[in-house]
Design goal:
CATH superfamily: SecB-like
Number of helices: 3
CATH topology: Bacterial Protein-export protein SecB
Oligomer: single chain
Helix content: 25-40%
CATH architecture: Roll
Order of helices and strands: EHEEEHH
């Protein structure tokens, strides 16, 4: 079954980007422990005019442990989409915002985010698996 996309991406850009490592001790500690870091994802949307929606996908990569020595990485990636006129159902709209758009831009977002982390002095880092937005969405819906 082929699903036609019910949206069109008009533009996408990095809205905010941040990498913080306070000092060399923290850097060396993080270099040893970055495998324990967790990726948090947050998706927000706000309607613009003319059936346009801005979707903000935020990646926060941080140590959840209460360590003194830590780094913090965050990116807010904005995507402006035009939703097709025939999308009337709230559930369909939610799926577009929370699954389909993030899924479409994920490869690019991951690349920008990993470049940030690599350029911050942690070149070995990669994410084991692609984020499954459909899974996150269905967990959220239940």
């Amino acid at each position: 079954m082929i699903m036609t996309k019910k949206f069109k991406i008009l533009t996408k850009y990095v809205k905010d980007i941040s990498a913080e490592t306070p000092d060399v001790e923290a850097y060396l500690f993080v270099k040893e422990n970055i495998s324990k870091y967790k990726l948090n994802i947050d998706i927000k949307s706000k309607p613009l005019k003319n059936k346009l929606i801005e979707i903000q996908i935020t990646f926060i990569f941080e140590d959840k442990e209460p360590n003194e020595k830590k780094s913090y990485f965050e990116i807010v990636y904005a995507v402006v989409v035009k939703i097709d006129d025939d999308v009337k159902d709230k559930k369909d709209l939610e799926k577009i915002i929370l699954c389909e758009v993030p899924d479409t831009v994920y490869p690019e977002l991951e690349k920008v985010f990993l470049n940030l982390v690599h350029d911050s002095g942690f070149p070995g880092l990669k994410f084991e698996k692609k984020v499954d937005f459909n899974k996150l969405f269905s967990e959220r819906s239940n």
